[in-house]
Amino acid sequence: MPCLVALIAYFTPRLVMILMWLFGDYLGSAYQTRIWPILGFFFMPYTTLAYAWAKHSGGLTGFPLVIFIIAVLLDLAAHGGGARSYRNRRR
Questions:
Q1: How many helices and strands, by DSSP H and E, does the chain display?
Q2: Per residue of the chain (91 residues), what is the pLDDT tens digit?
Q3: Nearest C-alpha neighbor of 55 from the set 73, 74, 37, 75
Q4: Which of 23, 33, 39, 40 is the most buried (most CB within 10 A)?
């Protein structure tokens, strides 16, 4: 079951964040304020989920740190790909 949740989170991170908010307090217990999960929902959903998982796994050390770095790179790649696509469309 956890592998299925991880696959769904990879393809639809915002849906997973909404489900986590509706059915539990996983994100709320990882962050002290509500502003960071909200900003993460709009700008960096992979990083937000990875950070919440890392906080519940014991902190940003070892394997959770690697997953967090990969999530940051995925978010940056998504933003960069969107900007490149927008520039190509304007030509």
A1: 6, 0
A2: 667 777 777 788 899 899 888 998 888 888 888 899 999 999 999 999 999 999 999 989 999 999 999 999 999 988 776 666 666 776 6
A3: 37
A4: 40
For residue 29, what are the domain limits? 2-90
CA 22 vs. chain centroid, Å, equals 17
Residue 43's closest CA among 68, 86, 64, 74? 74
Structurally, the chain folds into a number of domains equal to 1
CA distance 24 to 90: 43
For 37, 64, 80, the CA distances from 46, given in Å and listed in that order, are 11, 13, 15
CB 54 within 8 A of CB 68: yes
